[in-house]
Amino acid sequence: MVILSRVLVAIIGLVSLLGVGQHWFDLDAVAVERGMQAVGDIGRANLRADVGGLFLAISGLTLFAAVRQHQGAILAAMVLLGATLFGRFLSIAIDGFSAAVAPPMVVEAILIAILLFAYRAWGKKPEGL
Fold first, then answer.
1. What is the pTM of this model?
2. What residue spans define the domains of the chain?
3. Taking burial as the number of CB atoms within 10 A of a residue's CB, which of 12, 27, 69, 79 is the most buried?
């Protein structure tokens, strides 16, 4: 169970690195795939810093957690993903539901569930077990 959870957490970290690369180096794909388009130098800088930085933080935390089996890093990654999911629910509350919003929400919920699974799997065991 522990090995599987570490592998799943590492996969989350590696996939998040792909998001970093996309937001740092391929802003045209970000516009097409994610619906975010940068306007001017400040827009490109903000996409790279804010969204790319979020993916980098999630990647770094999950990879660290997988290597060190560190529950604190898992918790921090869950907080970041929870904040993104909250933002999507806020968007639905303000703008209404759109079918395009559902797939990223499902992905984020699944990632949070995997991280919660790992967090629980890595918990301290009682003496003698």
1. 0.90
2. 2-121
3. 12
